[in-house]
UniProtKB/TrEMBL annotation:
UniProt organism field: Schistosoma mattheei
GO molecular function terms attached to this record: ubiquitin binding
Protein name from the UniProt record: Uncharacterized protein
GO cellular component: endoplasmic reticulum
InterPro entries: Ubiquitin-like_domsf (IPR029071), UBX_dom (IPR001012), UBX_domain-protein (IPR050730)
Pfam families given in the database record: UBX
One GO term of the biological process aspect: ERAD pathway
Family matches, as Gene3D superfamilies: Phosphatidylinositol 3-kinase Catalytic Subunit, Chain A, domain 1 (3.10.20.90)
Length: 248
């Protein structure tokens, strides 16, 4: 411990007084100590002014500053890490919210697209032809929920008309197949171009409700990608076909 003596710091063991002391005694004691400790005081002052003492003191001060700087940098780095972690968490939460919003919008768009597709093909289908033996066939369909519908088809028409007839029913599934039981087989009636329901999503470049769809009267096979005719696939006799929900 150091105490102040004038303008000089002294070690406390050089000037310690213990016990009860009166002011006059304290003055005498101080005078006596001054005389007695002058040699020590002189040595201490000389020691403190030496280059080695100053260098040691500077090194201690420098070490203290380094430790303080390191502690400050560590605290600053910890604060920065906390801020970075919080910002990363906020970005992640924002991305999750954005993706959820996109998924919800896409789900809603697809739902509307299925409704648009059904509405459009309900308007495009021609009325059924009059039944004539040898040139037409009447087919019945059992829907997944148990309801039944039937229609007369021209044997020379492509069976894609069958697909759109099923699709246009109010209780038809979004994705379906048509199956016959005698023989048991899947009827390949889905047109190649009808593979993407996204074509029916209402966009600024693809408005679904601008004009009333025109009725299609020619359902003959136009190209190799078109499904075959009723005659070619041997759907020429009245029978019950089953509509299967592919999403079930």
């Amino acid at each position: 411990m150091l105490v102040v003596w004038g303008n000089t710091l002294l070690p406390s063991h050089l000037c310690t007084v213990s016990g009860t002391t009166s002011p006059s005694d304290l003055g005498d004691t101080a005078s006596s100590l001054t005389v007695l400790q002058l040699p020590c005081l002189a040595c201490f002052i000389i020691l403190r002014s030496t280059p080695s003492f100053n260098r040691s003191e500077r090194e201690m001060n420098a070490q203290l500053r380094r430790e303080q700087d390191l502690a400050y940098e560590a605290s600053l780095a910890e604060d920065r890490a906390k801020v970075a972690a919080r910002e990363a968490q906020q970005r992640s939460a924002a991305l999750v919210a954005e993706q959820l919003a996109k998924d919800a919008k896409r789900k809603e768009d697809l739902k509307k697209a299925h409704i648009n597709r059904k509405r459009i093909w309900q308007s495009r289908l021609p009325p059924p032809p009059k039944f004539e033996e040898g040139s037409t066939v009447q087919l019945s369909f059992k829907m997944p929920r148990g309801s039944r519908v039937s229609r007369v088809f021209n044997l020379n028409d492509s069976i894609k008309l069958l697909y759109y007839f099923v699709l246009s029913q109010d209780d038809s599934p979004t994705e379906f197949e048509v199956q016959s039981n005698f023989p048991k087989r899947i009827i390949p009636c889905q047109p190649f171009e009808e593979s993407d329901v996204e074509d029916y999503i209402d966009t600024p470049d693809n408005k679904m409700d601008c004009d009333e769809p025109e009725v299609i009267t020619d359902w003959s096979r136009k190209c190799q990608n078109d499904p075959p005719s009723f005659f070619d696939i041997d759907l020429t006799r009245p029978e019950m076909l089953f509509v299967l929900n592919k999403d079930a």
